[in-house]
């Protein structure tokens, strides 16, 4: 391997100083270096010359002006004074050569390639109508504004709460006055919903009826079928029936005298084959109170009546009747050519008129009349132990449909109105077609022709 050449460095010769130097050539106008700088260089001969900064290395303009900064974009809606147009800037005189440019001097440059933003009507406006970018109304002022829809919704909510509260009060008030009877049996359920409505013939001073005892003067069977319309069947109180759990037979209302409401329900269930779901009982004197509570009703009868037993005095036609007249109208039978059948028709008329008057707008919008009516109804009614004022309301709506012009109402097929029963008593004998009548009632297949006609 070759060895590198060796050599000895030369001895460093000391550089001459400025002392003893002679000036040659033209005198220079440049300033001599200060002695302090010369001494610092002599003291540290290894110190080199410091490089210039990047700023010093940039070439200067011949005019001495500084390089212009990038144009600053200002808002079109700034409150400060706008800059001069570019045409004026171009016409401005240039700075003198060698003079320092002012700090904020405007340089003749080309206009920017974009135009300042200007608002477009309909697009650069906020929802309060002020241009975008400008402050609109204070937030507090916006919060104080109320939309008409919100005001209407709040008013409706208050009305609904008042109506619901008033309805709950009436419901509680009526339930507190409603009577209850142990009436329902344990029979198997049947299709639909069945109400037994009974008017008890409690003798009082309002009438002078020779019949003695506590009996069911009015018996109605209201059935709401699952597939057909509601139907109201009037059961003549003198209908010949077989008493349950007995070998005896007799009039239908006799079962009420023997065993009360529960025995009557049992008897009707055996007669019709339908399970009684609800029981409602009204004292016949209650008809007077209900009629007066609704302000009287208009009743119609096409013949004159002067009945000493019921106290009814009637001239053929339609008349506005008070409670006393309505009670006598619904009880009169000795002066009726159809007897008990004619009476059931008049009783349905009284019930229909009371319901229509109770549901009239003039009463529904009067809170005082509503309270009076609910109290009058509850005081004269009794329901089964599971019943309530809601039971009465459901029955009332079904009655309105059944008694209406297109409703199904009437008596079952009858074979005889004067059949001699046990002991020679006059009874109402149902026709053999009655068995099919009860099946059609249960299945919702009854028609107007299914009822008895006289």
TrEMBL record:
Basic and acidic residues bias: where?
A: 75-86
Q: Where is this region: Disordered?
A: 1-145
User: Which positions make up the signal peptide?
Assistant: none
Q: Could you tell me the keywords of this UniProt record?
A: Membrane, Transmembrane, Transmembrane helix
Start-end of Basic residues biased regions:
29-39
Q: Which residues form the Cell envelope-related transcriptional attenuator domain?
A: 215-359
Q: Where is the composition biased (Low complexity)?
A: 65-74, 87-112, 129-141
Polar residues bias (residue ranges): 50-64
Regions that span the bilayer: 151-171
Question: Do you know which InterPro entries this protein is assigned to?
Answer: LytR/CpsA/Psr_CW_biosynth (IPR050922), LytR_CpsA_psr (IPR004474)
Keyword field contains Transmembrane helix = yes
- What Pfam families would the database entry show? LytR_cpsA_psr (PF03816)
Member of which family? Belongs to the LytR/CpsA/Psr (LCP) family.
What this protein is called in its record is LCP family protein
Species of the source = Trueperella pecoris
Record lineage: Bacteria, Bacillati, Actinomycetota, Actinomycetes, Actinomycetales
């Amino acid at each position: 391997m070759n060895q590198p050449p060796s050599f000895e460095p030369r001895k460093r010769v000391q550089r001459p100083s400025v002392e003893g130097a002679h000036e040659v050539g033209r005198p220079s106008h440049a300033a001599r270096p200060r002695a302090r700088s010369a001494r610092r260089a002599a003291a540290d001969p290894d110190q080199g010359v410091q490089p210039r900064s990047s700023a010093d290395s940039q070439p200067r303009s011949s005019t001495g002006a500084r390089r212009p900064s990038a144009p600053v974009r200002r808002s079109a809606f700034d409150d400060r004074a706008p800059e001069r147009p570019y045409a004026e800037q171009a016409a401005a005189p240039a700075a003198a050569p060698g003079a320092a440019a002012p700090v904020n001097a405007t340089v003749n440059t080309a206009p920017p390639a974009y135009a300042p933003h200007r608002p477009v009507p309909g697009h650069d406006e906020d929802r309060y109508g002020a241009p975008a970018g400008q402050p609109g109304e204070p937030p507090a002022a916006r919060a104080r504004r109320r939309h008409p829809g919100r005001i209407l919704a709040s008013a409706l909510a208050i009305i609904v709460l008042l109506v619901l509260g008033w309805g709950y009060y009436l419901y509680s008030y009526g339930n507190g006055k409603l009577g209850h009877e142990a009436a329902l049996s344990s029979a198997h359920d049947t299709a639909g919903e069945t109400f037994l409505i009974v008017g008890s013939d409690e003798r009082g001073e309002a009438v002078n009826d020779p019949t003695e005892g506590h009996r069911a003067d009015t018996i109605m069977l209201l059935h709401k079928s699952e597939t057909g319309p509601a139907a109201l069947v009037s059961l003549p109180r003198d209908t010949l029936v077989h008493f349950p759990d007995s070998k005896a037979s007799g009039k239908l209302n006799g079962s009420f005298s023997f065993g009360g409401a529960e025995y009557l329900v049992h008897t009707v269930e055996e007669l019709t084959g339908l399970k009684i779901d609800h029981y409602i009982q009204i004292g016949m004197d209650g008809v007077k109170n209900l009629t007066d509570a609704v302000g009287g009703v208009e009743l119609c009868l096409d013949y004159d009546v002067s009945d000493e037993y019921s106290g009814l005095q009637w001239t053929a036609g339609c008349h506005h009747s008070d409670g006393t007249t309505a009670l006598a109208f619904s009880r009169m039978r000795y002066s009726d050519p159809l007897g008990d059948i004619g009476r059931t028709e008049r009783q349905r008329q009284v019930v229909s008129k009371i319901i229509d008057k109770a549901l009239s707008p003039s009463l529904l919008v009067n809170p005082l009349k509503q309270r009076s009516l609910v109290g009058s109804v509850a005081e004269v009614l009794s329901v089964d132990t599971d019943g309530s004022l809601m039971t009465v309301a459901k029955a009332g709506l079904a009655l309105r449909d059944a008694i209406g012009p297109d409703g199904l109402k009437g008596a079952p097929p009858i074979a005889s109105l004067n059949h001699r029963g046990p002991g020679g008593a006059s009874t109402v004998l149902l026709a053999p077609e009655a068995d099919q009548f009860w099946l059609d009632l249960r299945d919702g297949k009854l028609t107007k022709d299914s009822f008895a006609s006289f």
